[in-house]
Amino acid sequence: MAGTGTPFYRGRMKAYLAMKADMVQHREVIREVAASVDGSWVYYVMLILAAVIALLGLLLNSVAVVIGAMLISPLMGPIISASLSFTIGDLALVRRTFRTLGTSIALTVAVSALITLVSPLKEPTAEILSRVRPNILDLFIAALSGVAGAVALCTKRNYLITSTGVAVATAVIPPLSVAGYGLGTWQPMLALGGFLLFFTNFVAIILSSDIVFFIMGFRTSHVEASQHSHRTRLAVITTVLTLISVPLVYTLSSDVTRIKNEKRIGRVLKSRLDRELASRLTGYRFRQEGKAVLVMASVNTVRFVPKPAQQAIEQELAQGLGRPVRLELEQVIVASESQLGDVTAKRGGVGAQPAKESPAELAAKMGPLVARVEQELTGALVPFEVSHTTVAFGGEGGPLLVSATLGRDYEVRDDERLLLSRQLQQALGVPVRVEIRVTPMLPPIVFAGDGSLAPESKSKLEMLRHLPEGPSAFRFEVAGPKESGGRLRFLGRYLAQQLDVPAQAVTTVTSRGRGGAVTLRVVRYDNVR
């Protein structure tokens, strides 16, 4: 039964496909493709607009804006046209489509790189980073999208809607914008990752739509000149597809391994650190360090986790991951409700007069609160140093008074102070009022005997690499006595060459007289007076 049934259904399928192929207006489709393959000025205008919109959406981390760029991108047209020209073996049409595609790709990448160079936003966002590690699933999505685009072109049914959906599914414009972003920020690996995703989509669409066109009856007989056989052309595309599948499979395998390791680490940490009324895991992350794995976790706990317990966690993680593990545990001491109840009971219950506590007892109780407040401020104001943090109670019903010293060369604005107060209020659960004093960000610059920077000054200057929004958002004021002009110039060169500080952002001020230290002030442009 099976032996006779299979040929029967195979014959039915061939007959059905032949009937559908006869319904396709082959020469009309080919003429339409040949007439539209050369890009017009409208095509290139729409392409540039799509590239700019996609780049802005990527820099702003806006999914909606990126999708809008996909919708207006005309790049899917030449790609589908290239596939059809491969199918019918019209090499002249192939050369025209690839000339249009080459111009389109180069123009998109160049425009994206130029916009990136002049844009104040240069930090890689999640939308950018999600398009630099393509995997084999991206190839499958592009292949299915190519099938949809080819069927839409052959049948002309809801072609506009279908082609729009294909453009969103394959997203050929955003990867090219990522490639331009990588070139504009001098990050070649980001550019390579974005272009690899585009190339993956491109080859998969060509191959899958080529197969659909062949099934729909497009043959070399539809062109006058004899060309290479369809089998040869299909073999070339399949070879290219196989070659690019190797790194994509490796990337997918790496991503799956990373996700499995992340879940395995989370299970172990939660099973060991989530203890009712004792401790609670608040976050964790991990990274590869050679052959070992570094796991960094933070936990709220009523008492410090002992070292043997930490070693037991490391051993369990190492056993699960199959490699050595080093655990760095950040512990925040908190008080449980039962502990607070014990304190109240010891004081004689509700309404009892509180016992007078010694300064040492008060310091011991306030210490964890002050440490937590300083930790929150440090995280919010990184890389600037926070010190001399104090906490005081503002009386019954009043806010918690937080005072700290910030190593920064410009004052804390009212709106920034308000944001800090709200962040602390959210973290502590009580109203907070913040007062921040500022002191110079950097100590006087120290030079060695040969006029170069001393190691301690080099170490301090490294924090300039982590300035919010990058060095381009700041002005660097180098000051010192007139006799130290050589050292001032050396410091300016060091900032530009070693720390990527824009040369135009560095100003040098010399003072009359002898003596005095060389100093560096770092001020945001919107705070320069």
UniProtKB/TrEMBL annotation:
Superkingdom of the source species: Bacteria
InterPro entries cross-referenced by the UniProt entry: DUF389
Keywords for the protein's UniProt record, in alphabetical order: Membrane, Transmembrane, Transmembrane helix
Transmembrane segments: 41-60, 66-89, 101-121, 136-154, 166-184, 190-213, 234-253
Protein name: TIGR00341 family protein
Species name: Geomonas oryzisoli
Lineage: Bacteria, Pseudomonadati, Thermodesulfobacteriota, Desulfuromonadia, Geobacterales
